[in-house]
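Reopening this one. Same input as before:
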Amino acid sequence: MTGTFPNISISTERLVLRPFDEDDVPALAEMMNDEQVGAWTGVPQPFTGTDARRWIAEDAPAARATGRGLDLAVTEFLTQRLVGTVQLTRTNWRIRSAELSYVIAPWARGEGYASEAALATSQWLLRDQKFERIEIRTAADNTAAQQVAQKIGCISEGVLRNACIVRHRAEDGTWTDVRTDFIVWSLLPEDLEGTDEELADTGGFAAYSDWN
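Same output, byte for byte:
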């Protein structure tokens, strides 16, 4: 059984999550060229305007049309500036599960945008779309991404040993692949109960200095 995600926008108090468009190309390219994004994700380095344009015009629409996943631009509600991206991948429509990942631009880190965007996407997926499981995989040393998973109520399920490749950049600008572990997190519909209240009690979404 295969489905497709709707072409939607999700609004929060500070953010709008929407499909990417051509105007996002410069900001997307700049964000993806950040050293920490290069280290923790598999995006090509350097990430050019051509790469950004292909992602927006071809890759993201194809993922949604084939049911593989969904790519959303995360933008500030007031300024409409691109602050990051949220992706759903590895979608299984029979099990109704998907993997969630997130990236936040360097200038927007420390504002809790990753937690806010990830929680909004999770609520939409588990409640409105009736999915039964969200999975997040974080590199063993990516503590910021792990804090986001914890903040939105995810449960740590265990470690996939030696299953992840991260990258280190040398002084001459070259990148080296380094193998490490994945920490696997999950979020089920019942895990969302009380999440909004807990976030409010701890001062909202700005509790962590999250890079992605």
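So the earlier flakiness isn't reproducible anymore. For the record, The CA atoms of residues 35 and 202 lie 30 Å apart.
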